[in-house]
Amino acid sequence: DTVLTQSPALAVSPGERVTISCRASESVSTLMHWYQQKPGQQPTLLIYLASNLESGVPARFSGSGSGTDFTLTIDPVEADDTATYYCQQSWNDPTFGGGTKLELK
Amino acid sequence: EVQLVESGGGLVQPGRSMKLSCAASGFTFSNYGMAWVRQAPTKGLEWVATISYDGSSTYYRDSVKGRFTISRDNAKSTLYLQMNSLRSEDTATYYCTRDRELFDYWGQGVMVTVSS
């Protein structure tokens, strides 16, 4: 299985720029996707194929990367962005990163 | 509007069976692969199983192979997950998702608790 590694938590102030990283144990090309999960809710798709913004998602969110290193950027961060963010690869059987919990100061 | 509504969860004893259902609406169900993704309490997301648009192909994570069966009824726009020989480690919220190799729509989830 392809293992995806994310930092467990980040804390930022509203209005700042935040980058959330995801590293894959092997190359997944650009077959990487990002999800947001707010407390008590189901996940929602934010970014697909590394850098494509899902319809309806604010342009404050963006994604980049290829191969083994990927980044989700939120700029500027808003209070409503408090959530856990997951990366997911579709190069082979789907796997998710452990999630990065974003807290606002 | 795409809607995925799961049902059938609850408390079940280890070794017993349970069947989950997911009623889909708002899109042409028979055109899309579907999947189940689970999340143990306070844990991350874990893909469980995928079924192709016509039901001809199914895929499972190793830990559920031989115990879980994913199926679908396109006439009823419904996805199923038959879970046999349940273990405590299967305790989780189970989400029904539309699978395009990314998961673009998710249900609200149904809780399955395996405990004696």
Describe this entry's structure for a reader.
- The complex is a heterodimer of chains A (105) and B (116).
- Chain A is mainly β.
- Chain A has no helices and eleven strands.
- In chain A, the strands form two sheets. In chain A, strands 2, 4, 5, 6, 9, 10 and 11 form a seven-stranded mixed sheet that branches. Chain A has a four-stranded antiparallel sheet with strand order 1-3-8-7, with no helix packed on it.
- In chain A, a hairpin with a 6-residue loop joins strand 4 and strand 5.
- Chain A is globular, with a radius of gyration of 13 Å.
- The relative contact order of chain A is 0.35.
- Chain B is built from no helices and eleven strands.
- Chain B has strands at residues 3-7, 10-12, 18-25, 33-39, 45-51, 58-60, 68-73, 78-83, 92-99, 103-106, 110-114.
- In chain B, the strands form two sheets. In chain B, strands 2, 4, 5, 6, 9, 10 and 11 form a seven-stranded mixed sheet that branches. A four-stranded antiparallel sheet of chain B has the order 1-3-8-7, with no helix packed on it.
- Chain B is globular and about 40 Å long.
- Chain B is mostly beta strands and 116 residues long.
- In chain B, strand 5 (45-51) and strand 6 (58-60) form a beta hairpin.
- At the A-B interface, strand 4, strand 5 and strand 10 of A face strand 5 and strand 10 of B.
